[in-house]
Write a structure and sequence with these properties.
This is Ornithine carbamoyltransferase. It is an enzyme of class 2 (transferase). The chain is of the alpha/beta class and 303 residues long. The chain folds into 2 domains: 135 residues, Rossmann fold, CATH 3.40.50.1370; 153 residues, Rossmann fold, CATH 3.40.50.1370. The strands form 2 sheets. The chain has a 5-stranded parallel β-sheet, covered by helices on one side. It has a 4-stranded parallel β-sheet with strand order 2-1-3-4, sandwiched between helices. The longest helix is centred in the first third of the chain and has 20 residues.
Length: 303
């Protein structure tokens, strides 16, 4: 494993290794113990999209591990003025020990990976968000002491996070039900890949039925970055696809309510759901730091 471009790049063994390492890192940080295994190593962070959790967690993570993170806004480097992704990857490989990229097109990450001689990590693309999903699995493990044999329900847009979650559920052995409006189903190639990996996947347009006996309820914004021109239509199409007290009531008594943030209370999730006793949303956000540090150690330090 050189890169992390897709959840499908990870085996079951890889996932458990990352989760175990992330839990160890989290505990040692709580105790004030230093894990500086990336001393004198530098991480380039290419950002085409704005970010809160991704940027802060990767910068802090590299600092915690003894390394250095360099923020590279795409408008501030030559890639924003026409230099090819291929050339950028080759040049950055001469300077850095790893690259993360938060980009619009998944193809950009593929080109970076194919042309870089150093590890490349997908920090979000239009197709996948594996770093988020590793933090999600870590959070589920903390609360359920397992990540297999449960029912995971996604409510909302069949987007990049949904794609990565489908793959993850297939790999770890979790049933996933995707409830989304017609026309917003997940990408068919990810549906096929999920089933090829042995996943138990159902796609429906009935969120209430989907949520029955759920162990996990998960949602994301209805209007992602890049979808702003469709906002009015999306708000109308998604109006019945909110995680709220009604869906929680038909789920299991210990259901976890998850959201990858940023959240819009009153739209994709009710205030009572995100701020209520079932919510683990801010644990998810924190675990981005620990899970990504584990990925950095695995790829940059070979741990």
């Amino acid at each position: 494993m050189k890169d992390l471009i897709s959840m499908a790049d990870l085996s079951l063994e890889d996932i458990y290794e990352i989760l175990d390492l992330a839990a160890e890192i989290k505990e040692k940080r709580r105790q004030g113990k230093v894990i500086d295994h990336l001393r004198n190593k530098s991480l380039g962070m290419i950002f085409e999209k704005s970010s809160t959790r991704t940027r802060v967690s990767f910068e802090v993570g590299m600092n915690d591990l003894g390394g250095h993170a360099i923020y590279l806004n795409s408008n501030d480097i030559q890639i924003g003025r026409g230099e090819t992704v291929e050339d950028t990857a080759k040049v950055l490989s001469r300077y850095l020990h790893g690259i993360i990229a938060r980009v619009y097109s998944h193809d950009t990450l593929v080109k970076l990976s194919e042309n870089a001689s150093i590890p490349v990590i997908n920090a979000l693309s239009d197709e996948e968000h594996p770093c988020q999903v590793l933090a999600d699995l870590m959070t589920i493990m903390e609360y359920k002491n397992r990540v297999s044999g449960m029912k995971f329900v996604w409510v909302g847009d069949g987007n990049n996070v949904c794609n990565s979650l489908m793959l993850a559920c297939a790999i770890v052995g979790m049933e996933i039900v995707v409830a989304c409006p017609k026309g917003y189903e997940p990408d068919e190639k990810y549906v096929i890949k999920t089933k090829e990996l042995g996943g138990i996947l159902t796609v429906t347009d009935n969120p209430l039925e989907a949520s029955k006996n759920a162990d996990v309820l998960y949602t994301d914004v209805w209007v992602s970055m890049g979808d702003e021109e469709e906002e009015e239509k999306r708000l109308k199409d998604f109006k019945n696809f909110q995680i709220n007290e009604e869906l929680i009531a038909v789920s299991k008594p210990d259901v976890l309510v998850m959201h990858c943030l940023p959240a819009h209370r009153g739209l994709e999730i009710s205030a009572g759901a995100i701020d209520g006793p079932h919510s683990v949303v801010f644990d998810q956000a924190e675990n981005r730091l620990h899970a990504q540090k584990a990925v950095l150690l695995k790829l940059l330090a070979g741990e």
